[in-house]
């Protein structure tokens, strides 16, 4: 089988929130303005949909399909891109957890085989799945088992494991980092780009962080990373979860993203407003 080499993902990728109506139904009409906002206000050109931030696990398969198509249509319309999705990514099963990296790799192989033409990324997010197998071990020999394998979305804090993945990877793979608070550490380790929830509203700042890093201006990159951390520390002190994050995005962008789905509880308006104000203040200080 010929390996499928997709467009190598680089730069910033926003993990999008799923717009819902006040009644909790998916709200496809908010997607076009959302894409406009990311492009025009944040300079973010790539999106990761139906993931953690998009409450993918709380959506039906039918809803996920409708959303994926709408995100694609709106995104492709903006970019005049000739292709649709650049790839799919798959997390570990988390109810029955794989006992070994090999078991997980075999699972990923079966899923990837269902869409063999689609560039495939393993999505490591141990804090959510509870699966702490080292990604480096999952990658061992994976190109032989998954010809469409294209890289890793690594949302773990173990930078040694991440570094070992970078060191193992052929140059056409893409290694994307997913803990926004410490992206700079992962860039130093060799990340090709980043996928995260905060790039919905901090994209333009973090784009500057990445270009400062590319130019070797570490003091500047660090200043921006510390701003991101200061914003998130403020939010964490108030109690920060995905519902708060979603409401914060509505607050900052003016988009009507609606409530989260259970078991997440809606975020009280004043809380998101307070974080949004602190965010403006911190970014204004630069
Ligand atoms: C658990 C989770 O949702 N992680 C996201 C990406 O994987 C991150 O983008 C975080 O939301 C972000 O780093 C803020 O903590
Ligand atoms: C943040 C991220 O990558 C996700 O929402 O899945």
Automatic annotation (TrEMBL):
Primary subcellular site in the record, as a coarse category: cytoplasm
Any Pfam family: DHDPS
A cellular component annotation (GO) from this entry: cytoplasm
Subcellular location: Cytoplasm
Alphabetical UniProt keywords: Carbohydrate metabolism, Cytoplasm, Lyase, Schiff base
Binding site for pyruvate: 53, 195
EC id: 4.1.3.3
GO MF: N-acetylneuraminate lyase activity
Pathway named in the protein's UniProt entry: Amino-sugar metabolism; N-acetylneuraminate degradation
Signal peptide: none
EC top class named in words: lyase
Residues the record marks as active site: 123 (proton donor/acceptor), 153 (schiff-base intermediate with substrate)
Reactions mediated catalytically: aceneuramate = aldehydo-N-acetyl-D-mannosamine + pyruvate
Family: Belongs to the DapA family. NanA subfamily.
Assembly information from the UniProt record: Homotetramer.
Protein name: N-acetylneuraminate lyase
Source organism per UniProt: Oncorhynchus tshawytscha (Chinook salmon)
């Amino acid at each position: 089988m010929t390996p499928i080499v997709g467009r190598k993902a680089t730069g910033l990728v926003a993990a999008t929130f799923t717009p819902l109506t006040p009644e909790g139904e998916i709200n496809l009409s908010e997607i076009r303005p959302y894409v406009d906002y990311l492009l025009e206000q944040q300079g973010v050109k790539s999106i990761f949909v139906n993931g953690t931030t998009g409450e993918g696990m709380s959506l039906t398969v039918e809803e996920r399909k409708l959303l994926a198509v709408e995100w694609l249509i709106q995104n492709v319309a903006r970019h005049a891109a000739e292709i649709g999705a650049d790839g799919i990514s798959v997390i570990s099963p988390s109810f029955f957890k794989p006992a070994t990296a090999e078991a997980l790799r075999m699972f990923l192989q079966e899923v990837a085989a269902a869409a063999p033409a689609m560039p495939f990324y393993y999505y490591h997010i141990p804090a959510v799945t509870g699966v702490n197998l080292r990604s480096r071990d999952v990658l061992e020999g994976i190109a032989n088992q998954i010809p469409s394998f294209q890289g890793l979305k690594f949302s773990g804090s173990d930078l040694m494991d991440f570094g070992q993945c970078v060191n193992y990877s052929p140059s056409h793979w893409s290694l994307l980092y997913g803990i926004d608070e410490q992206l700079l550490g992962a860039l130093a380790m060799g990340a090709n780009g980043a996928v995260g929830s905060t790039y919905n509203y901090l994209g333009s700042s973090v784009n500057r962080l990445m270009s400062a890093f590319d130019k070797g201006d570490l003091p500047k990159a660090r200043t921006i990373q510390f701003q991101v951390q200061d914003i998130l520390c403020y939010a964490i002190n108030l109690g920060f979860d995905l519902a708060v994050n979603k409401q914060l995005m509505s607050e900052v962008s003016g988009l009507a993203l609606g409530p989260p789905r259970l078991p997440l509880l809606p975020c009280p308006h004043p809380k998101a407003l307070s974080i949004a104000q602190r965010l403006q203040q911190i970014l204004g200080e630069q």
